[in-house]
Amino acid sequence: MVQPLDIGEYRNAYEPGKVQCASTEEMRPLEEIIGQERALRALAFGLEIREPGFNVYTAGAQGTGRMTAVRSFLDELAKAKPRAGDWVYVHNFANQYEPNAIALPAGRGPEFRDDMKRFIEDARRALPRAFESEEYAKRRDETLQSLQGNRADLIARINQRAQEAGFVIQMSPIGLLTIPIINGRPVPEEEFINLPDDVRTDIQRRRDALNTELRSTLRQVQEIERQGAEAATRLNHDIALYAIGNLVAELKEKYADVAEIPEYIDAVQDDILENLQAFLGMPEQPGAPPQFQAFIRELPFRKYEVNVVVDNTGTSGAPVVFEQNPTFQNLLGKIEKEVQFGIFTTDFTMIRSGSLHAANGGYLVLTVEDLLRAPLSWDGLKTALKTGRAVIEEPGERMGFITAKTIKPEPIPLDIKVALIGTPMIYQILYRMDPDFKELFKVKADFDIVMDRDDENAGKYADFMCNLVREESLRHLDREAIARVIEYGSRLAADKQKLSTQFAAIADLIREANFYAAGGGADRIGKEHITKAIEEKIYRSNLIQKKIEEFIRRGIFLIDTEGEKVGQVNGLSVMGLGDFMFGRPSKVTASIGVGREGIMDIEREAALGGPIHTKGVLIVSGYLNNNYARDKPLALSARLVFEQSYEGIEGDSASSTELYALLSALSGLPLKQYLAVTGSVNQKGEVQAIGGVNEKLEGFFEICKAKGLDGTQGALIPASNVQNLMLKEEIVEAARAGKFRIYPVRTIDEGIEVLTGVPAGTRHKDGTYEEGTVNYLVDRRLRDMAETMRGFQPTAAK
């Protein structure tokens, strides 16, 4: 017969004497990530290797220190890396719709922007002064004087020739008019058409001859005017170049070591020389409002601005960017627009970088859940990593929805390492469903949720507590409180030999305990404060549990905790409410009859049973076949059900419970109702481990306590789950007082012996069982049912 579990196995207490210091005040703060050696090695490799595609996916549960580990690694790595450069966008004088991107050493982007601004301001002052000088006027007069004399001579010659031919030349909007002179006065056109035909013919002949000469002379005049304009332009060019030449030379010399900038400065100079009028003063627009006048005045100079999109002036080492909101524009940049007098406009000065640009030359950290929630961000990131270029574009343009003309900035080359932080489930989904994922994120850093509970890790646990209270200015924990937190770490891990690495939950517990210590006026956090924090956290979330306990106590939900019954047993299940999980006892019953249907799972028939639960029921059928159907067919029609269950049931942890109920119904032996059962079973009758063992036992204990502990109550659990027991101290005390027992069972035979008090019975060589045992009674009942089935003849209809 299986003996009750030893009291020392109920909980793996951590003795306060093992804590080396009296409190966290005497400890050293933790400066490392504990319990994650595998993940840390993967991180070190993934963040150091520079080959393309070796980006990192950091997988783990929330609160396991994923973000802290990545941040810690990158802080150290970035310090040893060279500073990333600055990036600026400038006007493309060859194509204004495709701004140029220029790379500069770190810190020189803003400097170049300021130098260009100063250069344009100096040019706007120097050029008007140069063109208003007496020297310029003298040279212009000298340049144009001879040309103007030649032009005057040609005009005089034209007038003289016209007079000789009997005409006068008159300027008009449509050109030169030759008007005949008769009797010393010009003849208007309306008089000319009334002249005699022979007179008009003679005048027209002389006019045609004169016009031929005029056209030749006018071509000479136009050539002289063209030469004058070219001479003026050359003069203006020389004067302007002289005025800004030193400024240009100084700027080019300062940035001679930066690729593209000298060429850009030359383009700026050429554009200034071609648009001197903007620097010499734009004419006022009559009737226009002042703000429009100011806008028109400044508009020509916007193209000379420098837009700094990446500024690493204040960084030391490589940039590290943690993007908390990775929308498409926050990640990949955007092109802003502004409204000017009712019209949307944009240019290169309104290009804004994203976190991808800010992290260029360093590291970008993203939370994968946030990244996948943002439309287009995941595709945009993949495209950037595959092409090695950061392209700034409109989201609508990327999808082909926007066709309006806009600017297309030059892509910026990428040299970046991306670290995604997410859950293992999302990793598996991306790995299977997205072919690009496995090529772009070749390194997986997997964070475990538990670590070994040994003296070294327990000491690091205490160091973590020391670090937390120092960083957040909390009260220090005394020795007993430290030990209690370590025990809580094992409870979170649901394993005596492990500690949870969900440090966020540990930190929250200490913060809450600090609140209670402050409320009580304590100088330090004690064990009682940790215990209160644990109990209060449960109390805030266990309303549903207490309602179920009340319904059981009042007899609304039928759960027996005393006596014995045939075909009925208390099963233990777990209900999860998101932030809280608790055990709920359920009455499992079995009914049998003669037939060929086998075992029917009522939960499945009612569409309440999940596939794993259905598998468990089928395994029960396999157990019956293996043990009792070797020499006879099973003429069995059985029904299994969770009574008063109104929600879905999943999992196979009740398969042993259902089997016990069946064996009781078949053998006629009653089961002890003051014992509850959990555990899955295989076809060989071995009881297997299940999850939530602590919650299940505590749930049944609360029911027994509510209905009255009489010293008989207890529960059967798989022997392999003993290592998971971290029960609350109240159960330990009840067990020590002999009021609650736990039976670790390895097989169905061991369990049925505890539940019935009757030996299970071993099989003889001839296939029979010892008389009077449970298996004997079951086997005999099944044989009788088979005989009944074989001898049964349905009455023929008359």
Radius of gyration: 47 Å
Give the CATH topology of the largest domain.
Ribosomal Protein S5, domain 2
The tally of domains stands at 4
Q: What amount of the residues lies in strands?
A: 15-25%
Instruction: Please count the helical segments.
Output: 28
| Terminus-to-terminus distance | 57 Å
Which structural class best describes the helix and strand composition?
alpha/beta
For the largest beta sheet, what order do the strands appear in spatially?
23-24-22-21-26-29-30
CATH architecture identity of the largest domain: 2-Layer Sandwich
The largest sheet, given as strand count, sense and whether it forms a barrel, is: 7 strands, mixed
Mean pLDDT: 83
Indicate the overall shape.
elongated
